[in-house]
Amino acid sequence: MITRFAPSPTGPLHLGHAFSALTAWDLAQAEGGRFLLRIDDLDQTRARAQWEELIYQDLTGLGLDWPRPCRRESEHMGAYEAALDALWARGLLYPCTCTRRDIAEALSAPQEGAGAVGPDGPVYPGTCRGNMSYERSFPDVYPRPRGVTLRLDMALACASSTLFEHRIDTPTGGWHAYGG
After folding, report:
1. Cα separation of 84 and 92, whole Å?
2. What would the pLDDT profile of 71-122 be if each residue is shown by its tens digit?
3. Domains of the chain and any CATH numbers
4. What is the CA radius of gyration of the chain?
């Protein structure tokens, strides 16, 4: 089993981070697996080298160890672009421009009934799921849009699609991030 801890170097770690890191470490150790550290440095406006160094110090102080060098997200943007383009070409992504506010408003609409709520807040109600439009028939002609949603229910038909949908944003700066 491989577990990972992926903090953002945008400030000091807190007790919740320590708990998450220790939980991932303990699970990997119990299963004879590996614990990986990934630095989620996609927020280039707030990520700081001094916070990243403090992450290493704090985790070492907790007795954790990981393969070095650890993966830094900002160093793998080409691989993420290629993966998104491959998913787009296979028809597993669809355009979605919903914001967190849009999702909350859709879920609060009286005609929709009570929306599902997960551990991180409202579950995406599938507002743009029907966006498999004409462009999707010609992925080589129409480029992948900035905001897309991964449609894993096509591959995991036995699972609820709402549990496996994740928005992927490519902001103007070109950084990819889970958008909720």
Report:
1. 9
2. 999 999 899 889 888 888 877 788 888 887 887 787 777 665 566 667 766 6
3. 2-69 (3.40.50.620), 77-178 (no CATH)
4. 19
Among candidate residues 82, 67, 72, 64, the one with its CA nearest the CA of residue 25 = 64
- Sign, CA torsion 154/159/160/162: negative
Task: Tell how many helices (H) and how many strands (E) occur in the chain.
Answer: 4, 9
Which residues are CB-neighbours of 171 under 8 A, at least 6 positions away? 146, 177
Rounded to whole angstroms, the Cα distance separating 20 from 17 reads: 5
pTM, rounded to two decimals: 0.65
Angle at 168 between CA 116 and CA 176, to 5 degrees: 140
Give the integer Cα–Cα distance in Å for 59 and 11: 14
CB within 8 A of 40, min separation 6: which ones?
6, 7, 8, 9, 73
**CA–CA gap between residue 36 and residue 56 (Å, rounded):** 12
